[in-house]
Amino acid sequence: MKNRTVEFRSDDLKGGQLDRAWAVTNAEGLATVAFTAGTYATEADDIELVARVGGVVRVGCIHLTVVERVLNVTRGTSNKVLGKTLGKMLGTQYALPFVVQVAVGDESLATLVGGVLETDRNGSGYFEMLYPASNADWAYVEVTARARDLGAEAEDSFRTTLPILASDMQDAEVLPPNACSPYGTDTGTGACSNTN
């Protein structure tokens, strides 16, 4: 029936809330309200929402379950080291392209050290890690992607040595940019003799 006031009640919304306590039926006889879940998950069918017309006649009942929102973060890269980025030659730096994928809605964020990366509608965001060419193969790094959404948090880490551009290793007549360790040299005794 059209234009009937329907009241919605619950003894315990478990921290959630309704956008309003009543609604008027439309031409199809439907009345709707919106439920916003609380912070914590509930047991199965733990929330009972009852609809009444005129405060007396029970016209319907629905049981709701609030589940914990879970995020899933995955990061990845390839073995392709770049000598240029955004069309610009890097010269003394390499670029290692990464992708971060977040498995929750298109408004999720993946946090990077020094900044924030916004994901696209597929939950993917892209970035490059720039590093000195002289540190290639000498440094071991860890990149961590962290996502937060509606109180849930997830992260994924990637550990790797910094790769060298393949073309820098092809000329036997020219030393590659990482020929000397930027962290010192080992004299064979296990102690660095030159830490400059």
Main attributes of the structure:
mainly beta; four-stranded antiparallel sheet; Immunoglobulin-like; 2 domains; 196 residues; 17 strands; single chain
The CATH architecture designation of the largest domain is: Sandwich
Strand order, sheet with most strands: 3-1-5-6
Q: What count of structural domains?
A: 2
Q: What is the number of E strands? A: 17
Give the CATH level 1 class of the largest domain. Mainly Beta
Radius of gyration: 29 Å
Percent strand: 35-45%
Parts with pLDDT < 50 across at least 5 consecutive residues: 105-114
Biggest sheet architecture: 4 strands, antiparallel
Which secondary-structure class do the elements indicate?
mainly beta
Helical content class: under 10%
Average pLDDT metric? 75
CATH domain fold name of the largest domain:
Immunoglobulin-like
Global geometry: rod-shaped
Model description:
The chain is mainly beta and 196 residues long. The chain has two domains: 5-64, no CATH class; 73-180, Sandwich (Immunoglobulin-like), CATH 2.60.40. It is 0% helix and 45% strand. It contains no helices and 17 strands. Strands 3-1-5-6 form a four-stranded antiparallel sheet, with no helix packed on it. Strand 14 and strand 15 (152-161) form a beta hairpin.
Summarize the structure.
This protein is an all-beta fold and 196 residues long. The chain is built from no helices and 17 strands.
SSE arrangement:
Elements: E1 5-9, E2 17-18, E3 22-24, E4 35-36, E5 47-53, E6 57-64, E7 73-77, E8 84-85, E9 88-89, E10 93-102, E11 109-112, E12 115-118, E13 124-132, E14 140-149, E15 152-161, E16 185-186, E17 192-194
Antiparallel strand pairs: 1-3, 1-5, 2-4, 5-6, 7-10, 8-9, 10-13, 11-12, 11-14, 14-15, 16-17
